[in-house]
Amino acid sequence: MNDSQPAQLRRSLGFWALVFYGVGDILGAGIYALVGKVAGVAGSASWAAFGVALVVAGLTALTYAELGGRFPRSAGESVFTGQAFGRPGLSLLVGWMVLSSGILSLATVSVAFGGYMSGLVPGLSPSATVVGILLLLAAINFRGMRESSTTNIIATMVELTGLLIVIVVGALFLERSPDAGILQTIEAGRAAGWTEITSGAALGFFAFIGFEDMVNVAEEVKDPERNMPRAILTALCVTGIIYLLVVLVATSVVPPAELGVSEAPLLSVVQRATEVVPDRLFTLIALFAVANTGLLNFIMASRLIYGMSRQGLLPSALGAVHQRRRTPHLAVVTVLAVALALALSGTLTFLAGTTSLLLLLVFFTVNVSLMAIKRRERPSRRTFCAPRWVPLVGAISCLGLMPFVPRSSLLTAAIIIALGGGLVLFRGRRSEA
Hints:
Largest sheet: none
Oligomer: single chain
Distance between the termini: 37 Å
Structural class: mainly alpha
Shape: globular
Mean pLDDT: 85
Low-confidence stretches: none
Number of strands: 0
């Protein structure tokens, strides 16, 4: 490479590596705890709640698939909004919300990792563990996308193994039990009310969050116009099938009411179904799931900062790429510093609940952006094209889920959006000066 030219990100992700990136991001740590919460709300109809959540997530995933193929650039949501409306202030605000959700999620999972490690290694300081895992994730991220992708594939296989253990041992238990079965659970679920299913879907929807992060690594994907849409939809289909199987088995093996109050619902399923699998094994699997979620959030946030900088929405220095490693090193350091401050601040529990609401707002905006783009532009023949009704129904479904988000998150989300608005005003005044 000519040293006089600015370094570019390296395109090292093929189709299957991108699928693993998406599957790892969607699976994450959430499903290991979320099954219990959904069961506590929807009961035997938890499978229906997850089914509704999959449909809602699928609509927005179709929108992301088309836009990711049309505009394969980092900071995807900011790019999509800019292409649709041509307003840098709105693009900055949308990017700010995505960035906030990613860093909050990164800080949250680092604290969760510290808690798991303290249980596994008594006497180990949670704060030291938080610092250690964030530094390790930063080092992997800086090292390169190929190394990050390899780490993600290994961790994703471990996560999948944990879920497959739940499905297999649960199915074998149900085969031996004459009083319980998946068909009985489905029949019981059909009698549930729509309110329970919808409330469960609002929780279950958040288990599918992660596909949107895929568009932020578009500049490191080979042939993104073809691979990005196919990978997004493949990742969501794979995780959707796994989730539905896990939920059906879990609520059939353990009564939903009992599952709803369990601290570790999937561990409760395994303990009820078999004595062969040791508890510590599931703790190790949870550690891999948490660490992988943190790594992918770290990658997303750093690439988002890089992309917004290249669009002129953030200081240009944050768009620098390391000449040898070909990674956005200053963006990586920025994410590390902010995540450390949040994780060690003690206010994390209050802040973490806003992630879902912020992303629903972003999803609504992205769906509306595709509606605007479709009205005036035709896609390339090489890219995926969603039906015209998809972004409209996707936007409406996002609005429909917002009232079910916990009210405690509204104030924090409003503060973050207000800070983003202040950033927009500050940028506007500097542009005028």
